[in-house]
Structures are given as C-alpha cells and as structure tokens.
Write a structure and sequence with these properties.
Chain lengths: 318, 301
Amino acid sequence: MEPVVRTERLTKDYGAVLALDALTLDIGPGTTGLVGANGAGKSTFLKILLGLVPATGGRAEVLGHDVATEGAQVRAAVGYLPEHDCLPPDVSASDFVVHLGMMSGLPRVAARERAAEVLRHVGLAEERYRPMGGYSTGMKQKAKLAQALVHDPRLVLLDEPTNGLDPAARDEMLGLVRRIGHDFGIAVIVTSHLLGELERVSDHVVVLDGGTLLRASRTDEFLDATGALLVEVLGDDAQTRMADALAAAGVPVVRRGSLLSVDAADRGPRDVRDVVRDTAAELGLGLVRMQADHRHLEDVFADPSDAAVHDEPGVPRG
Amino acid sequence: MAESTSPRGTDDAGRSVIHDLGYRPYTGPRLGSTAIARSLVLTGFRNAFGLGRSGRSKVLPFLLLGLNLLPALIVAGIMAFVGLDRLPIGYAQYASTTQVLLGVFVASQAPVLFSRDLRHGTIALYLARPLPSAAYAVARWLSLLLATLVFLVLPVVILYAAALLTELDVSDQTREAGVALGLAVLLALSLAGVGGIIASWSTRRGFAVVATIAFLVIANGVVTAVQGIADGEGSTRVAEVAGLFSPYSLYRGLMGAWTDADTLAPPTGAGMVAAYVVVLVGLSAACVGALVARYRREASA
C-alpha cells in the first residue's frame, strides 16, 4: 500500500536543539502511534508534515505531496488536532466546526451537514449548541477532534488527544481514535507519551528518541515478541516446585510476580505446552492458566539495547 | 452500537431510534483558496459587528454605529422638514467630528479579529488549513477595513440621500460625497492597519483597546497642539509637517486640501499633499506587512 507519510533524512535543527536528526521513515495507512518522551520531536514532526515548519534538511511527503512546496494541498487533505487549547470560549461547537469546515474549502451547506455528522460521531449531542467555554476537558477534546474531521481528511494528525482526560473520557477518546482508523477509513497518526494507550489503538508504532528513529514496526510485533508462555499454577508452594520441575525438564523459566514465564521456543520433540501440562499433573498442581505472554510497549524502553537491535518477532529477551 | 444495526425503525419498546449510518465520506466540491479567503473576510466582517457571536458582543459595535449615525439622521430630518440650501456639515467633515466614536470602534473590534485567535490558540487550527498565513493576515485586515468603511461610509450615504431629497445640486453633492468616500477609504486603510497590528501584538483585549485609543487620540492631540503653536508662531511649514504624524491629522489635512472645509494648517502645494497621501497609504501598507510577518512567525513557531 502507498505510504501516507514518507520522509527521507528529515532534519530540523533549531540551532540549540536538534529536534529531528535525519529521520527516514514510511508511515502506511491505518493507525500509527508516534511515541516519544516530551521533547523527542513529535510535535515538530507533525508541524513539518503540515508544511508549517520548514525542515532544515531532507524531505517529507504527505499523501504524495511534498510538504515544502505543496503545503496547501497537504493541509486540505489532512486534519490536525493540536496538543494545546485552541477553542474560542464564546462560540458554540456547532458554529465553530461549520466555520472551520468552510475554512477547509467546504461550501456552507456541505459544511453544515458535515459538522452535524462529525459532532454526532464524536458524541457531542445537545451541548454542541452551547458556548465551548463551559465545556469539560473531555467535551473540548471531542470538539477539537470534530474540527479535525469535518472536511473528511485522508489523514488526521492527533497530538496527544488524551492529554488531561480522566480515565472514562480517555477510554472514550481512544475508542474514537480506533474508529477513525478502522471504521472511517482515515489514516491516523497519533502521538502520546503514554505507551499503554497507543498499544490499544494503533496498528503500527513509531518510537522517536532525541529526534531519531528508535524503532518502527507493527504493534503486534512489539507485543507478541516475547515468544513466552505465562503459566499460573495453584497448590502448596506451587510456583517454586513447578519452576524447579520445569527447569529440570530443560525448560527455562522466569518468575513474574505470581506467574511463571516459560520460554516456549521449540527445543525438542515435545511441545512446551505438553511439558507444562504434564509437569503440573505429575506434581499434583492445579493448572489455572497458560497463555501467550504479551509484552508491553514499555519494555521497548525498559531494555532499549534489545529493542534497537532486534526487530523480528519471536526473539527472546536476554 | 448493537441497537444501531436493528433493521427496524423502532426499538423493542416501540420508540423511534436513530440509525447510525456509519461514517460517510464527503464527495462534494472543495473550494479553492480564493473562496476560502472570501468566506474568512465575510465571517470576520460579521464578527466585527458581533454577528455570529454572543448577544452581548453585538451591543458595543451597534451602539457605536448608532451613535455615529445619529447626527447624520438628525441632519437628514432637519433637511427634510426645514429644507436648507446647503448641508450643515460637510461629508468629509463628518468623520472628523465623530472621530472619537470611530477610534473606539476600531480599537474595540480589532481585538475581535486579531487577538482572539491568538489568545485562544485558534490560530493553530486556521494555519493547519489550506490558506497560507499571509492570506489569513490580509483577510483579517480586510474584514476590519470593511467594518471601518461601513462606519465611515454610512453617514456619507445618509447625508447624500438627504441632500438629493432636498434637491441640492446633484453634481456638486456627488463630487463632494465622492471626495469624502476617497478620504474615508484612506482613513480606513490606516486605521485598520494600526488597530490590527496593535491587537495582534497584545493578545489581551483590554490592553489592545487602550493602546489603540491612546495611539489615535494622543497622537492626534499632540499633533493638534504642535500645529496650533506652530501656526500661531507663523511657521505653517512646521504645522504641515507635524500633520504627518497621526492618522486623524493626515485625514484632516487632506480634507482641508481637497474640500472647502476650514482646518488648521492644511498641506499646501502638490508635494505636501502627495506626502500626506503617501504617509497614509504607506502606514497602512507597513501595518499589513507587519501583520503578514507576525502570522508567518506564528505559523512556524
């Protein structure tokens, strides 16, 4: 599939700070999470993609348009949700989204229809007729999302959409982000400094660190990369006995809280799962569960040397 | 959304339900930059009079407009009933007489167009759209220019209508009204520029209002004082040069040169008159240039 964003040695040097350092990257359709600590270059990257901030080196293409020379075409086809506040308090969400739809080139009637539709999709009902100054943070984020969608963009750039939201509103926003990518068919680039969120909504994850690409791959490759099984057993001193027995049978085991993480790599004639089952039966322990050990995106940062070196699924962590 | 997939138009209790049709892409026309800019100018023009904003924000602009038109309406009434052989106030002189109202209008409504977007961060949403930052700056300035022109031109129109209804000489009146309209455009150009640049630099509305009024009124006051002293001392050249230093005194000077209005130290000689026009236009051009630079910097911040 044609990438929605393609950068080649993209560099932004602010003099004192090197925000992006020769970033070469392809971002495909679907939802892509852009992860990095504050100051990792995420916001700068989005502004360059919008054609607002000129890069000091390299080039970037968005939806086939060069951002340096075709900024207007890029901005016509892209929706943007900025990180900071951007809503005038004395205007209703309805009027505001209609106006911004027209600012993206929709005729007035079409802008009205689209505004009503996207406000319904983001879940702003009657309150859309009230001035936005009285909105909760969650409602404000929804209004910001609606203005990013009103012109039916082919790509939306969402800068920290869950910032400042309470857990319920955060879940709702993440659900919306997932729907935009999956059901609306709009490519999404969403930034966050919270890895757990992106893990839930994005198909791909790009990790930026100090303006360089730390890693880019499918989310499930991050998550299923351990190739280990999580085993929970019940009984007297169950974990220790189980761990010892498995180790004696030649299966490497690591304790993980109340669970055992068993290396499931193929190492003989018998499936590791059979070994676990039989060992539990021999010891008379209750085998409560046995599941694939999904690791979390945080692990990428917990062991950066590992993440930077290995990029294939199924590589066990040392 | 389980209920949304129900094929019926009612739920189990028999109530109507709204079906979620899912997301529908937009396939209609998309307008170009010119149409977008025109729409921004019109919206800004309406906003300058509080239209499309809260009810409270309509009070001040319409109060000022009403006060500004009141003398013209009274003159029109007198003309209709009494019937004079000439207008009691010149077309161009009118704006000079009501210049405080005009100054308050520009000072109070420029922040609506320039400060609000910057203070609330809305500028980021405009700049993320197709219109370039320079076009945004010029569109905002045009909105303020149009609103200021309405303020300046409406009284001229009312006086002109009154003059024609009382059957004053049409060609004389048309020529004088035409000169007044030309002067109104020159004044509006510079006032919109000055008001815009001050409002875009101070995102606090109150400060912008005070600074703009202070600039217009104080500069005019100082210039008038200098002109008065210089004229009294007999150095008319000094008085004429002093007139270059404030929009209102520039307007007054050109009014003195181009109409039969009696003003203090009007510019004499084609060179001085040209200097007055150049300064008035140059001031507005400089302000527009500064606005464009201001928003370009905002875009790449």
